[in-house]
Amino acid sequence: QVQLVESGGGLVQAGGSLRLSCAASGSIFRINAMGWYRQAPGKQRELVAAITSGGSTNYADSVKGRFTISRDNAKNTVYLQMNSLKPEDTAVYYCNAVVVTPSLIEYDYWGQGTQVTVSS
User: Fold this and answer.
1) Rounded distance, CA 118 to CA 88, Å?
2) How far apart are CA 46 and CA 48, in angstroms?
3) What is the model's pLDDT at position 62?
């Protein structure tokens, strides 16, 4: 079993910054892609940013230039630095990890979500 524990959400004014962290623990042989998704009320969950084990990144157009995803492979942790936040960034942010277990089976895991609220 693998657990993803997120931290760093909160309330911030427009133009401010937040940094989200997500640490994976448990039966991990290797973590392939890691990413952040978000879901606003009444909307579908959407990809915000993703990063491969080699460091290649992918961002939603709406956050390019404002958000930066990074990871520490030694700590099995992924980060999301969010700058120039806008009210439309308000959502629950979920961490995702594609984990290879010691039995060499790949699973998709999700964190419990952390609320990010940006006030205008």
Assistant:
1) 8
2) 6
3) 97
Which pairing describes strands 10-13 and 114-119: parallel, antiparallel, or unpaired? Answer: parallel
Helix (H, G, I), strand (E, B) or coil at 36: strand
Q: For tokens 């010691």, what's the residue?
A: 102
Encoded tokens for 34? 């890691």
Q: For residues 33 and 62, what is the distance between their CA atoms, to the nearest angstrom?
A: 21
Whether 66 and 49 have beta carbons less than 8 Å apart is answered as: no
C-alpha closest to that of 36 among 65, 13, 7: 7
- 105 CB-contact burial (10 Å; exposed 0-12 / middle 13-18 / buried 19+): exposed
**Rounded to an integer, what distance in angstroms lies between the CA atom of residue 69 and that of residue 97?**
13
For the chain, 120 residues long, give each residue's pLDDT as a single digit of tens.
999 999 999 999 999 999 999 999 999 999 999 999 999 999 999 999 999 999 999 999 999 999 999 999 999 999 999 999 999 999 999 999 999 999 999 999 999 999 999 999
